[in-house]
Specification:
The protein has 15 helices and 13 strands. With 375 residues, the chain is α/β, with parallel strands linked by helices. The chain has two domains: 6-177 and 357-373, Glycogen Phosphorylase B (Rossmann fold, 3-Layer(aba) Sandwich), CATH 3.40.50; 187-355, Glycogen Phosphorylase B (Rossmann fold, 3-Layer(aba) Sandwich). Helix 3 (97-111) links the parallel strand 4 (91-95) and strand 5 (118-122). The N and C termini lie close together (9 Å). The relative contact order is 0.12.
């Protein structure tokens, strides 16, 4: 590459796979010498603000008496146009179609002929749920067709997208990636801070949205941990009041630990023994991949694109959605069979490094940038 690129990344700031992937991609691009302009309403959860080539550009929602709620999309479009003009942006990369691709398209109209190309990366619920809503479907059809390139994080999401939308262009599948950060606390210290001793520790990390089905997670864990010492750590990226109520309803207060607003997730993955997921749908499940990089096998429902990440009975266990008995049984296996847990964890780490490394995935994104720019 003859020069560094100026890249605008649009993402949600909240905990979730789309924001995390966009942020980690920004870090990797900056390390390669590119200038990255992250546009969001506040700094994303894991953004490194101190990196000299990462620039956070705040987009402030507008509150006005006539609006029932703050307007995010139009101020975001104006901010995107401003950043593109002021910093000679080469490509706009929108993560999550609503509102980011819509705002990027409006910004392109504002800029005119000098507007940079738009790449849209679909992450899951922006298509599976919002895309199915009549309030958004026509708009999504339009802005996806107007994007210079559309990518998906899994083959499953690509197929679901093509079922919902009539797109003439090819959709490129580029999977998620995760590169661990240095652990800042040793395993014993982290476990001690959680009140965990030598017993197996399961981990679940998510934004606790309804689609994550924490009710089924707790039901399965209660079954799987019955009669043996085992704990579940939930890294929560949302309000935990309702979750704490559900934990109490199942009498799991002594076996479930909840920690919220976590930045250094690596410390917790390094201290855990396996991961558990119970979602209705996951286009990929970045949390499973994060665990895999630390040698953690997973137990989860076989939904969406998870089977593209997990090899059943080799790197983790997959069971039909809603079968809490089966999920509980797999949790129980991990809890009592350390040798199998370790063996599957080693395979999980090997697969994560070989298939979902930053070296491979970031280069795929860079190639897509150059393709749409025309270099």
């Amino acid at each position: 590459m003859s020069r560094s690129l100026n890249i605008a990344l649009l993402c949600h700031p909240t905990v979730g796979g789309s924001g995390i992937l966009a942020t980690e991609l920004g870090h990797e691009l900056a390390e390669l010498g590119h200038e990255v302009f992250v546009i969001s309403e506040r700094p994303p959860h894991r953004l490194k603000n101190d990196h000299p080539r990462i620039h956070f550009c705040e987009s402030t929602p507008v509150e006005f008496p006539l609006f029932k709620s703050p307007d995010h999309t139009l101020p975001l479009a104006t901010r995107i146009a401003e950043v593109c003009r002021n910093h000679r942006i080469d490509v706009v990369h929108a993560h999550y179609a609503i509102p980011h691709t819509a705002a990027a398209w409006i910004a392109k109209e504002l800029i005119g002929a000098a507007a940079p190309p738009i790449i849209t990366t679909l992450h899951g619920t922006d298509i599976i749920y919002l895309g199915a809503m009549p309030e958004y479907r026509a708009l999504l059809q339009h802005v996806l067709a107007a994007s210079d390139l559309v990518t998906c994080v899994s083959q499953n999401l690509k197929e679901r997208t093509l079922e919902l939308f009539d797109l003439e262009k090819e959709i490129l599948v580029i999977p998620n990636f995760y590169e661990p950060r240095p652990v800042t606390e040793n395993r014993a210290a982290v476990r001690s801070s959680l009140g965990v001793g030598d017993e197996p520790l399961a981990l679940h990390a998510s934004n606790l949205r309804t689609i994550k089905r924490l009710d089924l997670l707790l039901d399965a864990f209660k079954i799987g941990s019955a009669g043996r010492a085992m704990k579940l750590l939930i890294l929560a990226g949302a309000d935990t009041l309702k979750l704490e109520t559900e934990i109490a309803q199942r009498d799991l207060q002594d076996r479930v630990v909840v920690v919220d607003d976590v930045y250094d997730v690596d410390n917790y993955y390094a201290a855990a023994d396996f991961t558990v997921y119970s979602s209705e749908y996951e286009s990929f499940c970045l949390g499973i991949l994060e665990g895999m990089r630390y040698g953690l096998p997973s137990a989860s429902f076989d939904v969406g694109g998870i089977s593209e990440v997990v090899v059943d009975n080799e790197t983790g266990f997959l069971v039909p959605f809603g079968d809490v008995e089966a999920l509980g049984q797999r949790i129980s296996i991990f809890g009592k069979d350390e040798e199998r847990r370790s063996s599957m964890g080693n395979q999980a780490k090997k697969r994560a490094i070989e298939t979902f490394s930053a070296d491979t995935v970031v280069q795929s994104y860079l190639k897509s940038y150059l393709d749409v720019i025309g270099h």
